[in-house]
Sequence to fold (260 residues):
Amino acid sequence: MSMGKVWFVGAGPGDPDLITVKGRDLIAGADAILFAGSLVSQAATCWAPAHCEIRDSRGMTLEQIIRWLIGHGREHRQVVRLQTGDPSLYGALIEMVQPLDAAGIEIGIVPGVSSAFAAAAAGVESLTLPEITQTVIFSRIEGRTPMPAGESLAELASHHSTLCLFLSITLLDKLQEGLLAAGWAEDAPVLVVQKAGWPGEERIVRGPLMEIRERCQAARITNQAMIIASPALGARGWPGLKKSRLYDKGFSHRFRQAKG
Ligand code: SAH
Fold:
């Protein structure tokens, strides 16, 4: 029996134009697509060929998803599992890969634009800034899903680096608690972006740490939102910005000799 290949494709944050060219080409050649919820449905329907079977996995259990992927992987040449953002972040990826490995079905993964990057783009923010922070932490706030030891928000925030928090928009009280416990100021800047990368639907809320919760409640932002807390936020308006050495005229590197 000839087996097909199951591709896990990052669809990007929602705008179908933010999928990679490789991801779009795989969709265009797919026999069957299983997409993960409403955020990525457009990419599937936009680029899929007419004969392609398209199914939403919302409401399916992991077992049903696996059975579908194995069944279609055996039946078809090219199957796409379309996921939001990048498949390596909060995508239950390995839980799906293991049974496919066991079934002898080849898999491939195509990265996608994570909503963390779409949110930074929406806010015209840089997640790293010279002498401010050179580190980005992708995490979530503990809710129903327990966090491993050493990964409480207060512990992660103690680095005072950029925090991109997924799946946490209903936990803004814990954001305040965790950042204050780590010594962040009450007026530390926070950015929340809902539906980042969705033309016409993207919503941006900014606020000091102690007000961000009320502002999101007032704007009724309760889902599909990225939280970014970072000492680098708002740098677009800073007068005394420290520049990176990459373009510094006194700094030599492989492609340029320092002058003066
Ligand atoms: N793999 C995805 C994340 C999936 S977890 C990625 O790389 O983006 C789902 C969480 O991602 C949501 O709770 C929300 O925090 C965030 N998210 C996904 N799409 C988003 C979007 N368009 N705008 C803002 N946040 C988004």
